[in-house]
Amino acid sequence: MKKIEARLLKGFRDFLPSDMLLRNEVIRIIRNVFETHGFLPLETPTLEHLDILSGKYGEEGDKLIFKFRDQGERDVAMRYDLTVPLARVIAQYRDIIKPFKRYQIQPVWRADKPQKGRFREFYQCDVDVLGTASVTADAEIISVIYHSLKALGFEEFLIKINHRKLLNALLKFAELGDDAILPLCRSIDKLDKIGIEDVKNELTSRGFRSEQTEKIFEVLSPGLGDGGFSLDETEKLLGAIPEGAEAINDLKEIISYITSMGVGGDFISFDLSLARGLDYYTGAVFETFVSKPKIGSITGGGRYDELVGMFINEEIPAVGTSLGLERIIDVVKEHELIAVPRTVTRALFANFGGSAGMEAMKIMSGLRSDGIQCEIYPEAIKLGKQFKYADKLGIPFVIIIGDDELAKSEAMVKNMRTGDQTGIKISELSVYILKYKD
Amino acid sequence: MKKIEARLLKGFRDFLPSDMLLRNEVIRIIRNVFETHGFLPLETPTLEHLDILSGKYGEEGDKLIFKFRDQGERDVAMRYDLTVPLARVIAQYRDIIKPFKRYQIQPVWRADKPQKGRFREFYQCDVDVLGTASVTADAEIISVIYHSLKALGFEEFLIKINHRKLLNALLKFAELGDDAILPLCRSIDKLDKIGIEDVKNELTSRGFRSEQTEKIFEVLSPGLGDGGFSLDETEKLLGAIPEGAEAINDLKEIISYITSMGVGGDFISFDLSLARGLDYYTGAVFETFVSKPKIGSITGGGRYDELVGMFINEEIPAVGTSLGLERIIDVVKEHELIAVPRTVTRALFANFGGSAGMEAMKIMSGLRSDGIQCEIYPEAIKLGKQFKYADKLGIPFVIIIGDDELAKSEAMVKNMRTGDQTGIKISELSVYILKYKD
Question: Taking CB atoms and an 8 Å limit, are A260 and B147 in contact across chains?
């Protein structure tokens, strides 16, 4: 019979145990920070009606939605992010208690061109607060980002913060209409990638007049250098425009709140050129960057007070962020922030078969009841081969219980790191294994 | 603008926080048992090449695979179970250390008719051992089932066990060829649902002669009554046939091993009529049933020594089981086995705005560092409304820090269950909250 080639789709990955143990540990740490901030878990389905997702992610995003017609002729789409499903949830279950603080850790799918660090299936970890316009919620989100990265051991990162209304004020300053906001955001979002000149050209091609583009860069240029942007300088230029004043006020409040919440001042920076590509933001926006390894933003989010209104005739203000698990794991690996063992198994029971084998199983069962991860080699093969298995997996102990040991109610415990063998009373085996730290 | 109706696809579910807290707790308990048995985590992608999945689940199963052509004109399919992707993994990564003990907890998708308790998206929790033909591995799998259910608090359940080779022997006994095994399995798999007479009719329609069907029921009938099946009686009838003898021997060994592993004898039962619908089983098979609520099997699995051979020219024997998370949760709910709070938040800080609000944020940040789940109400609204929020969510404490309290370095802590208010030194707040048990 012809064999089917065992292979993966491009852009999709298996996570073998060595990967999974690290991923689970990173998720455990992040989830713990989410919960200490009072966020509650939510999960939404992989498939949604297509109309729930389409039209929310901008023209480029929409094209990347995995969509198909299902067996019942319904147009369905695979989860593209965790924000739009959340907006759908809050619109659908009207009795959810607000403010609603939820976290969500699930994979999303994008039919993007796979390349280094970019996959078609990847996890996002989102936190959002819905039902309050207070910037205290914005501050809580930034606190989650900061404390998550700190808990993971990150030493160097920068949370950049900006405000969509400052960009609106910038448009007014340049005598452009509100409808220029999306072209402006999409273009200046590319400043890092394509540089000032190409962004200027792009704005021209999007219909901006050259004096308008110049006005925009009159405000932007001073901050694009090494010194960075100054909130005070920006206030001088845009503070007279009502939206600008409102944004400056929001940002100042957010900064004083996050300072109270223990967010270190060196880890946060105002950046007027931060635009966020997505269409639905309405207030503060934030992204996090690291300098090593060279990857894009590791978190992205902001306030989106009008998204829920696409589903219902009620304004439910909202703010949140996504933590990009895959990139965060890249940083954890690059800086070796978390050490995980190759296996969870603490002890391998050698298998001698027959009644000794069954005695070993009984003793193993007792250790498991004490919470110790252990297993018996499934076959009564040569001891050397059983040791080799323990060694390859990195199991710290092999427990040998043959007839001689049984006669003495003992087990011979071999420490696989040191090679030492010690006779231990069977009744003291759990304590012996539990007290050993790697 | 026309609103898009916020709604779900049929057969798909949202898990709101109250559901999720229970689901996470059940998964935590199950995962802990998996790990104490030495199983390691694995995850595989949601999408696979269609040819990886098709032809593995029988004619009926194949029809239920969610499949589509993706943007790159590839035929892709959504994960239908966790066993076939595992077989693909072991075939693809030849250097995986064997025996390979892996667990996997992920959703799967089936384009089935949705009905009570049957969904199109649901979680499976699988454990499998690959690379050994020893029935010690079969015993480990049954031990995992038993200890998982016990750890969840199940008092009543029955793990039914049978062996595909006994059914092969049954065919020989009825003078049928080996190719009759799949029709036989598929029909007797329905005994519970459609009864003896209809199964006999179905066998006739599948081409079994009436004397052959009678021979089959000569062996099956005695066990189908209240007394159940006897391994000894079955041995008398089928033990002379080599495959029957082999199966009986396997089953006896498995039973003695699981007894050593602490599996209670009352929770396991031999059942010659247990067939498992899937095509790929080759040895022992097992399913678990509860009497309340009335649902189908809550676990299903067995030995499948030939599945990996569909991908590579090497036999990699394998055995495993799936735990059906959704049905297990149904049982947990029915018997109220696990109590979860409505929220993880232990304390709500009242928000008075201004400098008092910022002081509260500082103190809150300290509590979070001590691992306490807490939050501040995002708006400085009337205290009554803030209390109401805590009450509705079931947050046990509200912490009030106004100017008076600050002057005394105290917080007023309101216990929302008892209504008591106590002044607590801010430096002792964490200890006070931590020592309180619900």
Answer: no
Helix (H, G, I), strand (E, B) or coil at B131: coil
The SS3 of residue B351 is coil
Helix (H, G, I), strand (E, B) or coil at B129: strand
A222 min Cα distance to partner chain B (Å): 33
Contact B389 A47 (CB under 8 A): no
pTM (two decimals) = 0.95
Q: Which residues of B touch A80 (CB under 8 A)?
A: none
Structure-token pair, residue A338: 């978390």
Q: How confident is the model at residue A8 (pLDDT cuts 50, 70, 90)?
A: very high
- With beta carbons less than 8 A apart as the criterion, state whether A51 and B4 touch: yes
Statement: residue A277 has pLDDT above 70: no
Mean residue pLDDT of chain B comes to: 94
Q: Between chains, do B96 and A71 touch, taking CB under 8 Å as contact?
A: no
Judge whether B313 and B360 are in contact, CB under 8 Å.
no
With DSSP H G I counted as helix, E B as strand and the rest as coil, what are the percentages for chain A, rounded to 5?
A: 45, 20, 35
Q: Bridge-partner residues for A301, per DSSP?
A: A286, A321
> To 5 degrees, how large is the angle CA B217–CA B222–CA B224?
80
Burial of A263 from C-beta contacts in 10 A (0-12 / 13-18 / 19+): buried
Nearest to B380 by CA among B405, B338, B421, B352: B352
End-to-end CA distance of chain B: 48
- pLDDT of residue A39 exceeding 90: yes
Buried b (16+ CB within 10 A) or exposed e, A356-391: bbbbbbebbbebbeeebbbbbbbbbeebeebbebbe
Q: Tokens 């607590």 sit at which residue?
A: B424
On whether the CB atoms of residues A42 and A103 are closer than 8 A, the answer is: yes
Residue of B1, B50, B54, B71 to mutate, testing the A interface (most A Cβ within 10 Å of its Cβ):
B71
C-alpha A110/C-alpha A18 separation (Å) is: 25
Reported in sequence order, the residue ranges of B253-304 that DSSP labels E, i.e. its strands, are 268-270, 284-289, 299-303
The predicted model gives B250-255 an average pLDDT of 98
CB-based contacts of B17, cutoff 8 Å, min separation 6 = A40, A41, A42, A102, B342, B343
- Most A-contacting residue of B36, B62, B374 (CB-CB within 10 A), to test interface: B36
The 10 Å CB-count burial string (b at 16+, else e) for B265-304 is: eebbebbbbbbbebbbbbbbbbbbbbeeeebebbbbbbbb
CA distance B264 to A224: 71
Which pLDDT value is given to residue B168?
Answer: 92
Q: ipTM score of the complex? A: 0.94
Tokens of B257: 């091993």
Alpha helices in B64-178 (DSSP H): 83-92, 135-151, 164-173
Find residues 256-275 of chain B whose CB sits inside 8 Å of chain A.
256-257, 260-262
Cβ atoms of residues A304 and A280 within 8 Å: yes
Backbone angles phi, psi at B435, to 5 degrees: -80, -10
Name the DSSP letter for residue B12.
Answer: -
Residue B330 backbone zone (phi > 0: left; psi -120 to 50: alpha; other: beta):
alpha
pLDDT of residue A179: 86
Chosen from A98, A260, A351, A362 to mutate, greatest number of chain B CBs within 10 A: A260
CA atoms of B195 and B221, how far apart (whole Å)? 12
All residues at 6 or more sequence positions from B434 whose CB lies less than 8 Å from its CB, including other chains: B370, B371, B372
Sign of the dihedral defined by the CA atoms of residues A330, A332, A336, A339, in that order: negative
Q: How many CA atoms lie within 13 A of B366 on its CB side?
A: 12
Taking the C-alpha atoms of residue B51 and residue B43, their distance in angstroms, rounded to an integer, is 19
CB atoms within 10 A of CB B195: 11
